[in-house]
Amino acid sequence: MRSESTVSKKQQKKARSPSKPIGKVRNACLDTLRGIAILLMIVDHIAAIVFDVRIEPNTIRIATRLSMPLFCILMGYFLASPGKTNWNRFFQIVLATIAINLVYFTVYRQVEILASLLVCYVLFLLVRAKFAVAVLAVYLFPWDLSVGLFDYPLTVVASCVAQGMVLRQWGLKFALLSAAIISAGGLVVTPPTWYVLLFVIPATLLIGWGAGHAGRSVTWLAFVGRYPLSFYLAQYYILLAIGPRS
User: For the chain, how many structural domains are there in total?
Assistant: First the structure.
């Protein structure tokens, strides 16, 4: 019969031994918010491509401006998560950027926002956590050479992505301060781009709330949010195939 001391030693060794890693649990609430961002983008693109609605204060395309900072800040939030680089997501963005812009650039002679996000992703891979200082990039807008070529200039997109990193790394209170700084960048950003800056603070509040309420979700929106690139790519090809109404 084993002695009590032998059993005790084995129990202590078992307690010290690392448990098997548990897979990351997705935040369904953040997936829902990303789904909302995609839905707003689809509504915005329907208004623009099918009905030729311009971005003006009296149109629905003002409300749909929320989609851009919401999606970009969420991207930065996930970039700042601890752990290894998600190379699968990186190459998915690369492929989606190519697939969309093969058509988008041909029609509009501009590069679609995924290209801006891809540039931000590459810069993040180069500088990592230091990319958070790009919240100030919006103030470089007057010298941004991407204006006109990119549908959303790099300086504005970089600020929103960096905002997500600030939220993840330093919390909501500090992020609201940086959001206010980005929003004030509207003083140097020309319309219609500056309209998205009106929604940086609301988007930050939504994501900050969602980060603490992982169980809150809308099932079908969370599903869209889990596969954002697939839905985003599909809607572009469908809408561009439909084209503007006569």
Answer: 1
